[in-house]
Structure formats: C-alpha cells, structure tokens
Design brief:
Rossmann fold, 2 domains, 3-stranded antiparallel sheet, 14 strands, globular
Length: about 250
C-alpha cells in the first residue's frame, strides 16, 4: 500500500513512526512546507486509512513492522507480485497468505474476471475493493497487528473448507537446507494449511530472503511448484533449485 503514496507522504509516515509525538509544525519545518500543507496531507492520509488522527497529532494506522517491510525492496516486490498475477487465469480460485509482497497481487489482476481470492490478510483490501471482478473471502480468527492478518484455530478451520487452484505463499527466509521458515508459529500454520489445499504452490520471496532462517520451519522448499524472485537472486542457486524440480522465475 505504501508505494501509492507521494514522497512527502511517505516521509510524514516515517516521521510519525519514529516520533509519534511530533507536531504538525515540526513536520512542516522538516519537510519545508507550511503547517496548512501538513494539515492537508494529514487529513488526506487519514481519509485513505494510512494514519489515525489524535489530539494535536497523528499515528500510523499500521504496525511499524509492516511499514518497515513495505519500504524494503519495494520495486522488486511489485515486479514479483505482477509476475504472480500473470499466473492467474479467468475463473481461477486462489489463496493469498498475508505478506507485504503477496498483498500486492490483486493490484495486478485488473482485466481478469471471475477470480475468487481466499486470504487471511487485510493488506490487500484496497486493491480488491477497486476491482469488481474479484470476489474475496477473508477468514476470521485472532487479529495479528504485526502482520495485518487473522491467525489461530478459527482461521485454520475456515481455510480448510476451501480448495483452490493456486496458493500464493510468503516466507521470512528460505533455503534448500532449512526450507521455508518464519518468525511466527501462527504464520507457519497458515502457510501449511494453504499449501495443503491448493493444486499448485507459488512462493513469492525477494532475493534477500534466501539463506535466512526464521524461528519456525514451515515445510521443505521442494514442496513449492514455483518460486518467483527478483533478478538479484543468485543464478547458480536458481539452477540448483530447478534441478530439484522447482520452477524459478526471476523478474
């Protein structure tokens, strides 16, 4: 979502994230604009759901970890999401797990019809809302603010009712040796459940995540049918993954 903001709007959110008590006057001085301009920016950001207005100031509407991850490799994430959307055909059913890259997929589904998405994520709502050709099922459960997603037994039970053509999955780190890994146990269970209820599993992960290991192992990397990453991904490693039967797309 953050990539849709102007440069100044991104700076405002970053200042609010780092210093929640900052005043509009201070924001204006740092950004070289009037207080009136800052107030207009804050009003627009609040109307679009990026911030929450408070007495005398504002707070980011999203958890700091979400904002931090959205700002890393933003261009690469958009290319990866676009390539993932190209895998979807008219009439397909898909699952999309929570993540800052996976949430961008619906943004690139314009022009395709009768797509039904099942997800645990709230980050993709703005893109689905603007595309009437998409149908959306959001599973309920316990809300995780750090991932903007629903997790827990209720979410797992809801996911198990569906069977889809493609599951678009994410990870905090991955390798052939450790497989897909994450920092959150709850997130691992969501990925496992989606993978078990899809004909194809597509992993979306930028090149910086290869070789990283999260706290929890989710599943072997060889359980993925396709990996979509960026062109900085090591070419020798990509060939090794292909030798293991994984389709690798570098975009």
């Amino acid at each position: 979502m953050i990539e849709s903001l102007s440069a100044r709007e991104k700076q405002i959110i970053q200042f609010l994230t780092d210093e929640p008590s900052i005043t509009g006057q201070s924001l204006g001085k740092r950004l070289g604009v009037s207080v009136v301009t800052i107030r207009t920016d804050l009003k627009n950001l609040a109307a679009r759901g990026f911030i929450t207005r408070t007495h005398g100031g504002a707070l980011p509407a999203f958890h700091k970890s979400i904002l931090d991850r959205q700002s890393v490799k933003s261009e690469e994430k958009n290319r990866i999401a676009r390539a993932a959307a190209e895998q979807v055909q008219d009439g397909d059913t898909v699952m999309i797990v929570a993540g800052t890259t996976t949430a961008l997929i619906p943004k690139y589904l314009l022009g395709k019809g009768h797509i039904h998405i099942v997800t645990d994520s709230t980050l993709l709502l703005p893109y689905v809302r603007s595309n009437p050709a998409l149908s959306l099922t959001v599973v309920g459960g316990e809300f995780s603010t750090s991932t903007e997603s629903f997790v827990g037994p209720l979410a797992i039970e809801a996911l198990q009712r569906f069977n889809v053509k493609i599951a678009f999955l994410g990870t905090d780190g991955f390798s052939l040796e450790r497989g897909l890994t994450t920092h959150l146990v709850e997130g691992a269970e969501m990925v496992k459940t989606m993978a078990a209820h899809a004909d194809r599993c597509v992993l979306l992960a930028d090149s910086s995540k290869y070789g990283r290991s999260g706290f929890v192992t989710i599943m072997p990397l060889t359980a993925m049918d396709t990996l979509i990453s960026d062109t900085d991904f090591n070419k020798a490693t990509a060939d090794l993954l292909r030798d293991q039967g994984i389709e690798v797309l570098l975009v």
